[in-house]
Amino acid sequence: MTKKLIECVPNFSEGNDMRIIKQITNQIESVEGVRLLDVDPGKATNRTVVTFVGTPEAVVEAAFLAIKKAAELIDMSHHSGEHPRFGATDVCPFVPISNISMDETVEYAHKLAERVGTELQFPVYCYEFAAFSEGRRNLAHVRSGEYEGLSEKLKNPEWKPDFGPAEFVVQTGALAIGARNFLVAYNVNLNTTSTRRANAVAFDVREAGRTKRESNSISGKIVKDEKGQAVRIPGSLKKVKAIGWYIEEFEICQISMNLTDITVTPVHIAYDEVFEKARKRGLRVSGSELVGLIPLDAILEAGRYFLRKQQRSVGLPESELIKIAVKSMGLAELKPFNPREKIIEYLLEDIGLNKLVSMNLIEFAHETASESPAPGGGSIAAYMGTMADSLATMVANLSAHKRGWDDRWEEFSNWAVKGQYYLDALLKMVDEDTQAFNKIMDAFGLPKSSEEDKKKRKKAIQDATRYAIEVPFKTMNLAYESMEVIEAMAEIGNPNSVSDAGVAALAARSSVIGAYLNVRINTADLEDKKFSKEVLSKAQELVNKATAMEIKILEIVYQKI
């Protein structure tokens, strides 16, 4: 299945000696399951921002090793720089990227914080979503006093660390570990060279807005409240920082934005709002650009957003949704937009994507026909289910824009989304089944020289066998559940495509029975006979239901053709 992915962005208090930074990043790269994406040193700040992504457990391990190495190599008693800081590793935020919630991400942040405090024995504070109290949510507040004030701060019971000792460790200082949402750097292009006009739009949209002036003129006197503080007129977008600037390379002005929480203000909403505010000021948006990376879900939701505005079905493949997003927001205006370089999950192909489903049809057929025992029947069963749902989703999408059915586009779009869900889920099972087979082979390859080895080997074989039962059983469930979409498309979908729904029913039922054969053959080798009996009973029931559903769908099809 698609793995959970977390981004980690530790900031180390060294920006001049790259030999030190290289030793730290070497620790990160030594951990399997993570990928180092960026190393950004700053000389004036004497600080380096490192970005890496990986599976949660691997990220925790890589972050710990990097923090440990930084504690060995960086001496805070000799550190100076323009950026606020209070530790050798100053901050270490975790960011949920794919298939993981913020709550889960917080758990991993706490796991790292506890390990650092216990094993490395210096103060650790948790901030943002990982904070244990509201007063420690704000990083600036947690880091107040910086390194120079840390000794006195730790004497105050109110500043007892969340983990580790309340002691001033001269060399390492303290560390803030947090969890936050993904930050996207996003620029919108304007058809002007006037920085002043670009800034006006930036102030319209950014959360901080602008200072209020008498007569609403830039030269007007600043309005102050009863406490003497400047009154501000807030902008229209929450969790957005923005400024207007001129880009000499392209001879245009941009609204440069940091979207600090894309769950509050996603890129497509930011684009549309800038578009509208610019229009009201007589300016035009000509396109936009992403600086750095973006999560896949964010770009897919942008594609769906613009399709909904057109009253078109959103149940399309990832590649089509990405194309719509890129075209709608003009993401390729200044330079080509390559999804493989800009979308985190695609950049992490070796972690987040699988081998078989990335093949073309000929490669997949030849790989199956080769002497290798995998992919085998389980993968093919999952792929038959994928093809069934491809056909059902196609019928839904064709129905969504059938002439005369304009008022039903959303109805069929919802069916297409459901079909696309089953399509994607079964596509993942193609590789999952082969991985299950490989686990069994790996278990049989374990050493068996000692009694302890034999016990470990036997357990590994049984665990792998159970997994090899659970995977095709899941394929059965997905393929059967997807037949609801196929039945609906046979009954209410575009009548010109009813035969496609019939073929989908045949493929889905074959997927269920094919996966059942894999469940059955693998249960024979499982020692837990109670589990085997329960699974086989449920699997046989699914076969019966899928066969009955196939007959029902084909009756509908035959009545219409």
Provide a concise account of the structure shown.
This protein is an alpha+beta fold.
List keywords for this structure.
13 strands; 19 helices; 561 residues; Four Helix Bundle (Hemerythrin (Met), subunit A); Alpha-Beta Plaits; Formiminotransferase-cyclodeaminase, Chain B, domain 1; 3 domains; alpha+beta; single chain; 4-stranded antiparallel β-sheet
Helices and strands in order:
Elements: E1 5-8, E2 11-12, H1 18-29, E3 34-42, E4 47-54, H2 56-73, E5 89-98, H3 102-120, E6 124-128, H4 139-142, H5 150-153, E7 175-179, E8 184-190, H6 195-205, E9 210-211, E10 232-233, E11 240-247, E12 252-259, H7 267-280, E13 285-291, H8 296-309, H9 318-329, H10 339-342, H11 344-347, H12 349-352, H13 361-369, H14 377-400, H15 409-444, H16 451-481, H17 483-492, H18 498-523, H19 529-560
Parallel strand pairs: 5-7, 6-7
Antiparallel strand pairs: 1-4, 1-5, 2-4, 2-5, 3-4, 8-12, 8-13, 9-10, 11-12
Helix pairs in contact: 1-2, 2-3, 6-7, 8-9, 14-15, 14-16, 14-17, 14-18, 15-16, 15-17, 16-18, 16-19, 17-18, 17-19, 18-19
Q: What average pLDDT do the residues reach? A: 92
Shape: flat
Low-confidence residue ranges: none
Give the total of domains.
3
Assess the beta-strand content as a share of residues. 5-15%
State the fourth-level CATH superfamily of the largest domain: Formiminotetrahydrofolate cyclodeaminase monomer, up-and-down helical bundle
CATH topology of the largest domain: Four Helix Bundle (Hemerythrin (Met), subunit A)
CATH architecture of the largest domain: Up-down Bundle
- How many helical elements? 19
Q: Could you tell me the number of beta strands?
A: 13
Structural class by helix and strand composition:
alpha+beta
Briefly, what CATH class of the largest domain? Mainly Alpha
